[in-house]
Amino acid sequence: MNTKRLLFYWITSFTIAVTMYYVLKVGYTDRVFGSWFRMMQYHNDNPISFIVIPVFFYGIIANYFADSFAKKSRKEQLYLTLIIVTLTILVSSPFGGMLWHYYGMKAGWFPKNWGDKLFGSFSESLLIGWLIILLSFPYNIFGIVVAYFLTKKGSSM
User: Can you spell out the DSSP letters for 83-114?
Assistant: First the structure.
């Protein structure tokens, strides 16, 4: 594991993700993250905590694939970027769902089976996480483009 590269991925992707979030929030739309119909907006009310989750996993996944990324052709690098982004979404979604339920409990939606709701929401989060990301246009497109260039830059470290 290349610690310097991992820190590069974490710090740079977090900085870019937060900056882009606020640029879009100020200049484009009040709700940067998409949401399901009548869904509570915890991810828009607490964006930093929801940004940290995929940034954390992207750093680990990109660091894992970085050595092979550097050896690939541009077309193969694009495919590998899609794999990295897909894995990041798969791994991040359950934790984003747990965080969303945590904020719900802080807001007073405290179910009797809170442990099951908090820790048992993995499958629900995998299903809804994809939709939230798809609805988060254009933030999602910027994220994919940034993932490609960051992975490319980090692979040369």
Answer: HHHHHHHHHHHHHHHHHHHHHHHHTT---TTH
Q: CA 134 to CA 5: how far, in whole Å?
A: 29
Query: Could you tell me the two tokens for 96?
Result: 């984003």
Domains of the chain, by residue range, sit at 3-32+39-155
pLDDT in tens, 114-156: 666 656 666 676 767 777 777 778 878 899 999 999 999 999 9
pTM: 0.86
CA distances from 146 to 8, 104, 152, 154 (A): 13, 31, 10, 12
Phi/psi for 132 (5° steps) reads -60, -45
